[in-house]
Write a structure and sequence with these properties.
The chain contains four helices and no strands. The protein is mainly alpha-helical.
């Protein structure tokens, strides 16, 4: 499968924090964002609620909670 590069700009401290959290889960940031993109593609929506009152940190935590909810079955069925 051909691959493309995606560049994302974010706060440096947020990036470091995301890298740490992903590492603790045994994921790279690339893998985490790929999971996010695949979930958007499959569900045709952002996989968490976005409101005007939600901070970036809260939105990220909701996203990471969703990533933590993936099971080995998710990867085994070939849809991921």
């Amino acid at each position: 499968m051909a691959q493309s590069m995606v560049n994302i700009r974010m706060d440096t401290e947020l990036k470091k924090s995301v890298e740490k959290v992903c590492s603790e889960m045994g994921l790279s940031v690339t893998t985490a964002f790929t999971l996010f993109a695949k979930k958007i593609n499959r569900e045709r929506r952002i996989p968490f609620e976005i409101t005007g009152e939600m901070s970036k940190e809260t939105a990220f935590q909701i996203f990471m909670d969703g990533v933590n909810g993936f099971s080995d079955d998710f990867f085994a069925d070939g849809r991921a």
